[in-house]
Amino acid sequence: MVVCISAKRKLLLLGAGIEQCEAIKVAQSLDLFVVAVDANPHAPGLKTADAGVCDDIKNVDKMTEIAKKYEVDGVMTHGVEIPEVVAMIAKNLGLPAIEPEVADRATDKLKRIECFTKHKVLCAKYATARNSDEAIQASRRVGYPCIFKPIDNSGARGVIKVDSDAQVKEAYAHTAKFTKELVILIEEFLQGREISTESIIYHDKVYTVALADRNYIRGKFEPYFIEDGGEMPTRLSADELEKVKKVVDDAIRALGIDWGVAKGDILIDSKGIAKVIEMAARTSGGRFCSVKVPLSTGINFLKPLMQMTVGLEPDLSELQPKFSKGVAERTIFVEPGIVTSISGIEDARRIEGVVDVHVNEDVNIGSEIKRITDNSMKKGYVTAVGKDREEAIRRAESAVEKIRIVTRKP
């Protein structure tokens, strides 16, 4: 049975969490009818969308039925690592999208790096292992230090640095907990400055106009890789910017992403060589393309992407910078233990230029904070703007310093 709700173009959005609420707002500003789906019945986007459905967004058959029911014109997700699900639903219904095999190749870390290597896209050396004994041999071939990664996860879940044979067994066990596959990926440890990129691909042209410098506190969280926000505009020189854009373009074309969006993690090493760490066929999470890029440049990637998704001609003028402001995000880190007090949040919000202070709902008096081992375990963040990046960084870091979440050992 078809539900006739509106004469507007209809968009099926997979995911209705806090980040997806930004996407819902953008879609509705384009006069689209939004059908949002989330497995969490309390997901806030289920209420703000034109139609909210509680269901498993990874179930292709169920999502296809929902798409048919509402006669949607397009399907997408925002900041969720399920581009292959989106692609399969779109293929089932003849809607705009990349091919499912392209989406899979851009999601599976092993297939992705195999593709990069085959097409001579600059990236890390790699090997694979099915057990800790194989991991020792593979690590020696790649060379220490190296990185163990699950091939089917995101947010740095299961990612760990390994410096010697003695660390392999424990590291392998850690990574194996975060994968459903029988094999893990072992990569060369690349060092340098890391850049986040966002690209729109339309009519065989790649538009990479959003770049940010990623910020890491080196050593503090080793052997894990925890990002402490980032900032815009990038510090890249004109020459470095061209190198980054070239490797982004090379990676996107190698993967076969000929339409839609691509999110990149790029590294510039000490020799000034740009290498691709990851390239995904989806929008970025962490509020990068939906909040920080618009604050810094006025560019809103979601608008042309959504227009393309529902079969409209995209307004590519949205990809032109309207201004240049500093934007910085910093993480609110909490020491492991039982939370005994929380203070300073309102003081942080009152700092000039602070546009968002977020502390997760699970941070309360008496709640237990675990040791952070991946980016999904971070408990909050501050976003600030300024006339330039330095002012934005100062404001964000000043706000974080105001916030005190005290813990005691359990």
Structure commentary:
The chain is of the alpha+beta class and 410 residues long. The protein has four domains: 92 residues, 3-Layer(aba) Sandwich (Rossmann fold); 64 residues, Dna Ligase, domain 1; 132 residues, ATP-grasp fold, B domain (D-amino Acid Aminotransferase, Chain A, domain 1); 82 residues, 2-Layer Sandwich (D-amino Acid Aminotransferase, Chain A, domain 1), CATH 3.30.470. The chain is built from 13 helices and 19 strands. The strands form four sheets. The chain has an eight-stranded antiparallel beta sheet. A four-stranded parallel beta sheet has the order 3-2-1-4, with helices on both faces. The radius of gyration is 21 Å and the shape is globular.
Which features characterize this protein?
globular; 8-stranded antiparallel β-sheet; 32% helix; Rossmann fold; 4-stranded parallel β-sheet; Dna Ligase, domain 1; D-amino Acid Aminotransferase, Chain A, domain 1; 410 residues
Helix count from the secondary structure assignment:
13
Any idea how many domains? 4
Helix content: 25-40%
- Looking at CATH, the homologous superfamily of the largest domain is ATP-grasp fold, B domain
What is the CATH T-level topology of the largest domain? D-amino Acid Aminotransferase, Chain A, domain 1
Described by the principal axes of the CA atoms, the overall outline is: globular
Characterize the largest beta sheet: strand count, sense, and whether it forms a barrel.
Answer: 8 strands, antiparallel
Assigned CATH class of the largest domain: Alpha Beta
CATH architecture of the largest domain: 2-Layer Sandwich
Mean pLDDT: 95
Report the radius of gyration as a whole number of Å.
21 Å
Please state roughly what percent of the residues sit in beta strands, choosing from under 5%, 5-15%, 15-25%, 25-35%, 35-45% or over 45%.
25-35%
Spatial strand order of the main sheet: 13-12-9-10-11-14-18-16
- The counted number of beta strands is 19
Q: pLDDT under 50 segments (min length 5)?
A: none
What is the CA-CA span between the terminal residues?
55 Å
Question: Which class of secondary structure composition applies to the elements?
Answer: alpha+beta
